[in-house]
């Protein structure tokens, strides 16, 4: 009997925890869900994505006159937690969901979006969402780069700087992404490839970047292209500079695109790509994003994951204002801090006249904008 | 046992009527419940503590994603555990944990026709949530009943005899290797079933299936469940609810809540054991 | 090579701490990941702050887990690790924190100053510990490793010994976190070091002279990536 009683109590507790309170209040505001990795491996990016989402909520009202409310959900660092968070947001009646961080998360969420008929805009991941769209998933869009655009930007950097040689350093846990990017670079540049190396996951070899530094030094390349957007790239750059490396480091962005990191490192000739760089005026939103972010959150604005999450929310707000969300997203154009977005096959047209990624280089304590 | 089965069935049926989200959370709990029960059998009945049940779980999920016909390989996954058992009981948990970490990293290299790697693979078929839930529920009940029956059967007694003392078991004519193989086979097969269900429910498999979360999940759940098989199901619901379901309601603090519960359960459990 | 030696010393100290907690303290101390991160965050203010904070964290962990079985204590340490990590994340609320590094030249090789100090501290810890192991005073530790109940029967003050082990190792890991961090700090920083050290500790634990083998494996595994 006692067991049965315990069982009933636990059962009631669990069910009451799982069942969501229904909101009686019918409000007119547009609810947009944001998947933010607040916990786990990517929690550092989660902070800026959340801040950017809050800023987008404010700007949607001030600039576009749309009353939106962002609903933040922690998508963790696994696809499983991202899906749960997505389903939870969908249950809360959001018109669309933006965000999620890693590629597996974006892929799982894209399938769920199709299943639940809720629009999802991938604002960070460069996963193979094209195949989902080809299979008929109309609910998934991406305002972030696809894999090939990362390669396009890197090749453009080599062209702008007239680099005669380059060296590729990939990051093992992002092998698929880096490999596709490297292939594109190799096929698009005339500069001489001095070699290719990969550093291992810090979980199995936390100091492997030191070995990669030794090899990079021997290569004597003019430009080193780093495929790791994470914290290990910082260790690499520091070690490389310490050992007297003279090459320009071109980073895919992420950690090495943050002003606070670059200033903290104080190492010259680190180039990076970003969706937009402070000082540019791609649209009326660019300056406002960077300035207001600093005013409110007392730090430099993030120029990729945060910025694109901000843009994704404003894209949804603008599209929803015009009418049917999917139809408007498919045919319309939308203002964002990175430029003016149009979607072709549900992918933002990066590389078009009105939407181009930026390349900056850190020199003497300042960022010089190259494109 | 019949009362327990009836109560568990009632417990599992209820979420079906509470909407998509609750059903989905319950589905994850059920799948991880199967994983936990398979782990629990390995620990309690066979006497081997594994920190690598994410290995059969993840391998089966990957096999399904790569090619469902490859699932015929899943019954052989026990061989991995059999190999590690030669290191002895004391080192078995660590050996299996290293295996799971190794696979977690190596799975980033699984690339087929330019797909896979860190992105993982899509699963070639899907099921509606209702159907998948019903199937998973049935499999959980089957798993529970199967292990209950096995542990009380003649075979179960022989497995336990090997667990308690291999030399003594041998002296009364029980072949320790044979019964160890049988035990490992049962445990890893059900862990593989959980992996397959997991892959179908997310329509995708990525290296995270080998992550320490899945390696440690059954251990944590089993220990908070007072080592009772039926309680493993409830424990699985508790941990999944805490680690997954509050992410959109308490995004800032849900993980702290999870950590506090983990600490409290460990202490409360000890006190309860002393009563 | 100097850099590799310091790194090996660091991983030796880390894995010996794990082994000590496991063999003597009867806990697989997963909190070390967060102790390391805590130390790294505290180094923003002053690396020495990691010492009292690490000691307190180790002490609290001992007090709250002293009556628990290995399994329960390990679960507790996991919860404790997540709690510290989440508190740091919520308190600092920033993407990454970059710490300044000082370079020094040792035997013609340029190394990070704080890593050199961490290497020296780790070497000192390992040396003192090995000397202790060779002394007669280590008998209590050995008996406790072998059999906790037997140790109590022999009059070993097991609780006191556990307290010492958890506090010293907690202090050491937090202090090493404040020195050996990569110069960029974020909430999940410590896990990669813990996982790597657990692998070393596990391999060493296969052998009877686990502590000695921890030194060997730390050196081999640290140098291994050079060949791949």
Keywords summarizing the entry:
heterotrimer, A: about 375 residues, alpha/beta, Rossmann fold, 2 domains, seven-stranded mixed beta sheet, five-stranded parallel beta sheet, 15 strands, B: about 280 residues, mainly alpha, ABC transporter involved in vitamin B12 uptake, BtuC, two-stranded antiparallel ribbon, 12 helices
What does this structure look like?
The complex is a heterotrimer of chains A (371), B (275) and C (228). Chain A has helices spanning 2-18, 43-64, 79-91, 103-116, 130-134, 147-160, 175-188, 208-219, 232-242, 259-265, 284-297, 305-322, 325-331, and strands at 30-36, 68-74, 96-99, 119-122, 140-142, 165-171, 192-199, 223-226, 248-251, 270-274, 333-336, 339-344, 347-348, 358-363, 366-369. Chain A is α/β, with parallel strands linked by helices and 371 residues long. Chain A folds into two domains: 30-147 and 282-348, Rossmann fold (3-Layer(aba) Sandwich); 148-275 and 358-369, Rossmann fold (3-Layer(aba) Sandwich), CATH 3.40.50. In chain A, helix 3 (79-91) packs parallel to helix 4 (103-116) and helix 8 packs across helix 9. The radius of gyration of chain A is 22 Å and the shape is globular. The termini of chain A are far apart. Chain B is mostly helical. Chain B has a single domain (2-274), classed as ABC transporter involved in vitamin B12 uptake, BtuC. Chain B is built from twelve helices and four strands. Chain B has helices at residues 2-13, 19-46, 54-66, 78-85, 92-106, 129-152, 154-164, 166-171, 176-202, 212-224, 229-245, 254-274, and strands spanning 111-112, 115-116, 121-122, 204-205. In chain B, the strands form two sheets. A two-stranded antiparallel ribbon of chain B has the order 1-2. A two-stranded antiparallel sheet of chain B has the order 3-4. In chain B, strand 1 (111-112) and strand 2 form a beta hairpin. The longest helix of chain B is centred in the first third of the chain and has 28 residues, at 19-46. Chain B is globular, with a radius of gyration of 19 Å. With 228 residues, chain C is mainly alpha-helical. Chain C has one domain (2-222). Chain C has ten helices and four strands; from the N terminus they run ααααβββααααβαα. In chain C, a hairpin with a 2-residue loop joins strand 2 (103-106) and strand 3 (109-112). The chains are: A alpha/beta (371), B mainly alpha (275), C mainly alpha (228). The interface between A and B is large, with 56 and 53 residues.
């Amino acid at each position: 009997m006692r067991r049965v009683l315990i069982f009933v109590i636990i059962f009631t507790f669990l069910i009451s925890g799982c069942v969501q309170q229904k909101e009686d209040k019918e409000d007119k505001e547009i609810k947009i869900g944001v998947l933010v990795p607040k916990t786990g491996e990517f929690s550092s990016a989660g902070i800026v994505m959340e801040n950017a989402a809050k800023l987008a909520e404010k700007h949607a009202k001030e600039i576009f006159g749309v009353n939106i409310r962002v609903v933040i959900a922690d998508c963790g660092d696994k696809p499983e937690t991202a899906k749960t968070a997505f389903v939870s947001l969908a249950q809360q009646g959001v018109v669309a969901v933006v965000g999620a961080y890693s590629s597996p998360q974006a892929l799982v969420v894209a399938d769920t979006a199709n299943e639940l008929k809720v629009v999802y805009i991938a604002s960070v991941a460069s996963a193979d969402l094209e195949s989902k769209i080809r299979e008929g998933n109309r609910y998934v869009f991406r305002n972030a780069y696809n894999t090939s655009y990362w390669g396009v930007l890197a090749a453009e950097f080599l062209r702008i700087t007239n680099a005669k040689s380059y060296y590729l350093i990939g990051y093992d846990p992002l092998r698929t992404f880096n490999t596709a990017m490297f292939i594109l670079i190799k096929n698009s540049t005339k500069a001489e490839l001095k070699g290719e190396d990969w550093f291992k996951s810090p979980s199995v070899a936390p100091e492997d970047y030191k070995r990669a530094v030794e090899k990079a030094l021997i290569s004597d390349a003019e430009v080193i292209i780093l495929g790791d957007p994470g914290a290990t790239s910082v260790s690499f750059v520091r070690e490389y500079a310490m050992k007297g490396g003279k090459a320009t480091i071109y980073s895919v962005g992420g950690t090495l695109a943050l002003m606070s990191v670059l200033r903290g490192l104080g190492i010259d000739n680190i180039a990076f790509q970003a969706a937009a760089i402070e000082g540019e005026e791609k649209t009326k939103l660019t300056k406002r994003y960077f300035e207001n972010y600093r005013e409110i959150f007392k730090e430099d604005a993030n120029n990729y994951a945060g910025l694109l999450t901000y843009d994704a929310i404003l894209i949804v707000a603008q599209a929803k204002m015009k009418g049917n969300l999917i139809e408007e997203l498919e045919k319309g154009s939308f203002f964002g801090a990175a430029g003016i977005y149009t979607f072709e096959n549900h992918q933002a047209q990066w590389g078009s006249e009105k939407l181009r990624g930026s390349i900056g280089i850190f020199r003497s304590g300042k960022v010089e904008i190259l494109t | 046992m019949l009362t327990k089965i009836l109560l568990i069935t009632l417990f599992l049926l209820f979420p079906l009527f509470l909407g998509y989200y609750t059903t989905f959370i319950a589905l994850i709990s059920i799948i991880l419940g199967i994983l936990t029960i398979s782990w629990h059998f390995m620990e309690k009945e066979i006497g081997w503590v594994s920190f690598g049940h994410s290995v059969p779980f993840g391998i089966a999920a990957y096999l399904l994603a790569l090619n469902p016909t490859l699932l015929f390989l899943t019954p052989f996954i026990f061989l991995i555990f059999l190999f590690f058992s030669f290191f002895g009981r004391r080192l078995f948990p660590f050996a299996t944990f290293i295996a799971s970490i190794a696979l977690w990293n190596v799975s980033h290299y699984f690339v087929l026709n330019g797909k896979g790697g860190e992105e993982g693979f899509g699963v070639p078929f899907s099921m509606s949530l209702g159907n998948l839930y019903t199937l998973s529920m049935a499999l959980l009940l089957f798993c529970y009943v199967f292990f209950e029956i096995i542990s009380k059967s003649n075979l179960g007694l022989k497995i336990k005899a090997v667990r308690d003392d291999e030399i003594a078991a041998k002296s009364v004519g029980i072949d320790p290797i044979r019964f160890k193989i049988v035990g490992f086979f049962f445990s890893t097969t059900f862990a593989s079933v959980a992996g397959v269900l997991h892959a179908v429910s997310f329509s995708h498999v990525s290296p995270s299936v080998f992550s320490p979360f899945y390696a440690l999940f059954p251990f944590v759940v089993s220990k908070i469940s007072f080592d009772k098989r039926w309680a493993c199901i409830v424990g699985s619901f508790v941990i999944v609810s805490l680690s997954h379901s509050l992410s959109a309601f308490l995004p800032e603090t849900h993980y702290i809540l999870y950590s506090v519960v983990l600490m409290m359960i460990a202490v409360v459990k000890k006190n309860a054991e002393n009563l | 090579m100097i850099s590799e030696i310091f790194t090996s010393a660091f991983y030796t100290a880390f894995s010996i701490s794990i082994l000590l907690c496991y063999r003597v303290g009867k806990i697989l101390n997963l909190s070390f990941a967060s102790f390391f991160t805590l130390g790294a965050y505290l180094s923003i203010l002053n690396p020495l702050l990691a010492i009292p904070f690490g000691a307190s964290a180790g002490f609290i962990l001992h007090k709250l887990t002293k009556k628990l079985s290995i399994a329960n204590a390990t679960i507790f340490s996991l919860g404790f690790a997540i709690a510290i990590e989440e508190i740091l994340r919520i308190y600092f609320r920033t993407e990454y924190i970059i710490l300044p590094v000082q370079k020094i030249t040792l035997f013609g090789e340029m190394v990070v100053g704080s890593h050199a100090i961490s290497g020296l501290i780790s070497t000192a810890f390992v040396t003192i510990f090995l000397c202790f192991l060779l002394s007669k005073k280590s008998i209590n530790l050995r008996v406790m490793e072998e059999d906790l109940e037997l140790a109590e029967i022999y009059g070993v003050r097991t609780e006191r010994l556990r307290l010492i082990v958890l506090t010293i190792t907690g202090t050491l890991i937090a202090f090493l976190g404040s020195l050996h961090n990569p110069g960029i700090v974020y909430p999940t920083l410590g896990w990669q070091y813990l996982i790597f050290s657990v692998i070393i500790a596990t391999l060493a634990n296969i052998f009877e002279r686990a502590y000695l083998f921890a030194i060997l494996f730390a050196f081999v595994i640290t140098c291994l990536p050079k060949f791949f």
